[in-house]
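Translate structure to sequence.
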């Protein structure tokens, strides 16, 4: 049966290697063969291509479900991987190597890489599923279950074993429908559970798998089977393949099934933090430049600090001071209580107000003018948060960090959004935040982000945020 490594960058390395070979082969046959490259140009281009493909596969968990996805999804993954990776190497050859290729060759390179990558993966998966590897043989296995789950159990074992398992018999616990010797789903009911060790004593079997409630697991039978050298599996949750938010791990000598809103590989978290650091450095430098321009205007409009530091709740309930360019008058927090009646968020879980008179430059009725409205319209006030990103309090992309008074109103369904670092931007910010006046909709967007969190998804939201900023349509009020 195909075995995948559970953790680390070598997980599904065979499929990562197919990505590398497909793109590298087409690069040599289509690009290098028809365009003159010096040895140093060739070596540098190939190195960049190979390293980027491996990095891309690791950062995106490209092959986490590779053995279980259909042909259409496999094709889309090949398109996504090859378009991005081939695009990067073509940009490198154009602007770094200074070797123009031509649109026809570039298009052929990308399309050929997609086709080769897809076809080889499909064929390779079929070989694996059919057990054609000389290093594998079918493992003889007995299934132990109950009347109410045996059909589902047999069906999934057939579907996910890829022909690498031979079901040699079935054992049922306290069956009301079948007796020993009966045919169950095409397999023989071979023995009662207590008689199974004696039944197997003179028969060759590799493994036994039990899909039983923990209280029904026959521990004495398990001990005897283990003594006989028969590997015994106990199903914890058969949907581990389909739900990446569960995993088995060990704590203090106990084997545990761990469930969370989102479980990411350490490599993905590391890649996300690297992106945060790079983005934090770039954003902090821009912030310093903006400070020289925006700072004096803020001070002249309302003498006082140009930065606004507000306590917010971060990951795991940790309190940190979130920085912003000050877009409101110094007494804004004191005036918040008197303006609560104008809050557009109906349940009061956040404070949003149309034509907020506390914003710098507002007229008597909150007329939108002046520096405050300008820096909020283009989200310039958010730039100092890049310092928070560098300090590790925030991420470039995440959930909105609540204020202390907002946190006090949270219910059980609201806490999960603080399981990750809060972000400068996120699903809520890129979905027209001023148009969302239902806090539960904010929660829904935040949870959608957490469940789909990845470096590639972060980059999509970052690009969308930059686009909205340039258009002055970030939705801030």
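Result:
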């Amino acid at each position: 049966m195909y075995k995948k490594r559970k953790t680390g960058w070598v997980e599904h390395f065979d499929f990562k290697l197919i990505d590398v070979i497909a793109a590298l082969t087409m690069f040599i046959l289509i690009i290098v063969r028809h365009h003159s490259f010096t040895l140093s140009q060739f070596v540098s281009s190939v190195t960049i291509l190979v390293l980027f493909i491996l990095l891309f596969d690791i950062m995106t968990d490209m092959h986490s479900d590779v053995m279980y996805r259909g042909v259409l999804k496999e094709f889309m993954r090949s398109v996504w991987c090859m378009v991005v990776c081939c695009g990067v190497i073509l940009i490198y050859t154009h602007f770094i190597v200074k070797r123009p290729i031509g649109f026809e060759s570039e298009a052929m390179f990308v399309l050929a890489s997609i086709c080769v990558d897809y076809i080889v993966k499909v064929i390779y998966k079929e070989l694996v599923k059919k057990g054609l590897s000389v290093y594998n043989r079918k493992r003889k296995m007995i299934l132990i279950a109950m009347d109410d789950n045996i059909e589902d159990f047999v069906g999934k074992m057939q579907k996910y074993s890829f022909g690498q398992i031979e079901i040699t018999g079935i054992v049922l616990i306290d069956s009301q429908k079948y007796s020993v010797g009966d045919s169950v789903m095409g397999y023989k009911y071979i023995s009662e559970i207590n008689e199974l060790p004696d039944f197997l004593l003179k028969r060759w079997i590799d493994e036994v798998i039990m899909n039983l409630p923990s209280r029904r697991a026959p521990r004495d039978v398990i001990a005897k089977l283990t003594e006989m050298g028969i590997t015994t599996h106990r199903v914890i949750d058969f949907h581990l393949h389909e739900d990446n938010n569960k995993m088995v791990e060990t704590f203090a000598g106990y084997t545990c099934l761990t469930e969370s809103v989102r479980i990411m590989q350490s490599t993905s978290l590391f890649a996300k933090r690297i992106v945060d650091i790079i983005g934090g450095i770039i954003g902090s430098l821009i912030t310093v430049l903006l400070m020289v321009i925006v700072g004096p205007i803020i001070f002249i409009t309302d003498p006082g600090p140009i930065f606004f530091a507000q306590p917010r709740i971060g990951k795991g309930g940790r309190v940190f001071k979130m920085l912003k360019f000050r877009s409101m008058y110094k007494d804004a927090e004191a005036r918040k209580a008197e303006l609560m009646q104008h809050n557009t968020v109906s349940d009061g879980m956040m404070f949003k107000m149309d034509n907020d008179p506390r914003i710098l430059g507002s007229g008597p009725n909150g007329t939108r003018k002046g520096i405050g409205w300008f820096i909020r319209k283009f989200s310039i006030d958010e730039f100092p948060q890049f310092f928070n990103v560098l300090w590790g309090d925030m991420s470039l992309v995440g959930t909105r960090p609540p204020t202390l008074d907002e946190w006090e109103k949270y219910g059980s369904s609201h806490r999960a959004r603080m399981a990750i670092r809060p972000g400068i931007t996120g699903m809520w910010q890129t979905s027209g935040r001023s148009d969302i006046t239902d806090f539960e909709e904010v929660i829904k967007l935040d949870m959608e982000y957490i469940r789909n969190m990845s470096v590639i998804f972060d980059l999509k939201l970052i690009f969308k945020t930059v686009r909205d900023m340039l258009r002055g349509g970030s939705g801030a009020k």
